[in-house]
Fold each of these.
Amino acid sequence: DLIVHVRDITHPETILQKATVLSVLKNLNLPSHLLDSMVEVHNKVDLIERYKPTEENALAISALHGHGLEELKEEIEKKILTATGKKILTVNVNLEGPQLSWLYKEATVQEVEVMPEDGTARVKVIIGSSAFGRYKNLFPN
């Protein structure tokens, strides 16, 4: 669904390495949308003082120090959701019913926050449009 190209930005041949990777990817006859949506990641920015990517849409990270990893995670999530046509939603479910079990089978459950006082839960899920339509038909409330 997505290509993430991570480069050691401190390597003296980093530009040549990028060109080589892009050439190999193009020769694999991958769908053009994969190449167009590729996430470019510049790693080891902690080794270059005040590093700013000159390439459009490149993300600067330091895996060693954790710099930029949250932005990278958000970008990957956004692109994967776009590529797969899925959404992240929070739904309220009655814990006495079958909704939570259905969501575990038909979606990707990320978080469950139980409200014991009223027997419900807030459930954060990644779900496709058709699955969410089925969910609304099965559980209209």
Amino acid sequence: ASGMAVDEECKIKFQDLKARRNYRFIVFKIEGQQVMVEKVGDPDQGYDDFAASLPSDECRYGVFDFDFTTDENCQKSKIFFIAWSPDTSNVRMKMVYASSKDRFKKELEGIQVELQATDPTEMSIDIIKARAI
């Protein structure tokens, strides 16, 4: 595991998303030697808002609370963890994010689906829906 510290706010905001549904999504950024909360999305924001808050040329971690209806017409939600690592981002940062991911994910209990994406097509809403069911 890398020596990346996780800011306490990351865990608090994640608990709020999971337990209270105060947020639709959270975007995390590695700053210095620590994972920080960069942005949170209001409950009424959608997946497009989440995708738009990921920079096109920098790595991020994201958590998205995805609501969906099953074929049996049941309302469900799943918490997605998305490791965003665009091809255009700095190679060193890609390595830092890749080596810190598992340790950071362990800090966030309750993640149900993990997705790795290097461009927006790899995390399209269709892929999210397919992975949720």
Amino acid sequence: IFFDKEACREAYNLVRDDATEVNWVTFKYNGSTIVPGDQGVDYETFKRKCTDDVRLFGFVRFTTGDAMSKRVKFALITWIGEDVSGLQRAKTGTDKTLVKEVVQNFAKEFVISDHKELDEDYIKNELKKAGGANYDAQTE
């Protein structure tokens, strides 16, 4: 597997940059190369990229917290669709180490193959648990 490191780094930096609207990017397989895939503003659009027949890596920015304390947290999501072959599944973990050469700043990583676990509230809750002050604890 080859990894287009420079192109992927540019995509990663778009999500990290507060000055851009981009909240997520995907890194996808193009033959035997991992390249930047789609990018966007809306998490629902990201979820639609996670179809049963693909595997991809997503780097996603979430804003959690309340009026007192907005926090930006990043998640690295490895999506492996249910129809992905066993061999490809097995290789995904190894490929992820390449992606992590670029994607180094995230609160939590997820490996997901069930659409329910892509739920935004589920991910945000997991990110909250991953550390940092939680000012709205008294309402939970």
Amino acid sequence: GDPNVSTAVAVWERHSHKESMHTWVGGAAVPPSDAVVWPQAVGQVQELATLCYRCHVPMVPYGTSTGLDGGINAMQGGICFDLSHMDAIAELSLEDFSVAVEPSITCKALNSHLRGTGLWFPISTVGAGAGSRGGRSGG
């Protein structure tokens, strides 16, 4: 429910913006999703994914809003999962040089957290947008 779900046109437009050089069919704008949700925790993402699966509704991931990989293209409608509120560092293991982070952690925030540990997370140049947001990685 509000404020974690929106079907407002302005929100759709913002969540269908992309920087990709790829165009949609006929060069038209990227089609918007049917709704945007802002999960706050992994459990909510799991519940939303289960609901989408049961109802045959496409899931459209949304991270940093560049759309360089074409991930925000809602080709058949669907629910946009805006993961920007999930930016915590879940686990840090200095022993094995690994860190588990939520999907919207930035390299800057991660490196700030790592300051003083002797570890750092380099910004990758592999892939479009790689290194700007994290997943599970070593440092």
